[in-house]
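Issue 218. Parser rejects a valid record. Input:
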Amino acid sequence: MKTTPVTVSTPQFAFLREFLKRRSGVVLDENKLYLVVARLLPVMRQRGIASLDALLDRIRTASDPAIERDILNAMMTHETSFFRDKAPFETLKQLIPTLVQSRGPMRQLVLWSAASSTGQEAYSMAILFNEHFRDLLATWKIRIIATDISDVVLTRAREGVYSELEIVRGLSPLLLKKYFTPFQGKWRISQDCRRLVEFRQLNLNDFWPTIPPCDIIFLRNVLLYFSVTTRKAILDAMRKKVRPDGALFLGSAETMLGVNDGYERLSGTHCSCYRVKR
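Output the parser choked on:
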């Protein structure tokens, strides 16, 4: 079935914005109407749906949960790269020895990559441990939990296979040689890194009963897509997940100011790194 050129009316756009906010907490800016066309047209073509109204009717009638999933997957932003911004990973490397000292009886560290997309952030953590704390891996349990709302990107993340373009964004030739092998014209991450990461589907706008207390949480470049009310609620929930001497990382363009006063920024880190106020 062919689709006609897609135009988005004001009521259609309003309905989609409300659907995204209700299901994911994401607030779609009023000037992002072009994203609706760019991201939903492939869904319509794949499903053989001729018009945007017909697509939205599937949501209104709740007759096709798979369509709702496809729309959510399409409308999410999945920008990521290996060792993105670098400073947070340098800070993480500095924090690990102190955490190891205080976790001696437990012999376990738990890191959470929230909104992990296709996995580069979580695998960057795994590479960091293999590169700088390999002795620790022999005697400690290192858990890297990676979550995302999209099952599509999680499937890719579990595969651990990346294109040349994805590889060159953040990875040095040395790290590529040490932790990746060629695979069908792409690159596959090593088992030493894969075994450290647990991928789970999770909606940050929901409850997180399966997430254990964490030593490190990367919540980077995701809050900016939420309303202030949703940001506050997520940060409140994060306070119950990050250990008192642990750390919560936000993106470089994100801040706690005017959103949540339950954290204090760690000085000298050159990144948005916070600890729960005592």
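Fixed in the parser; the record now loads. The chain has two domains: 10-75, 87-276.
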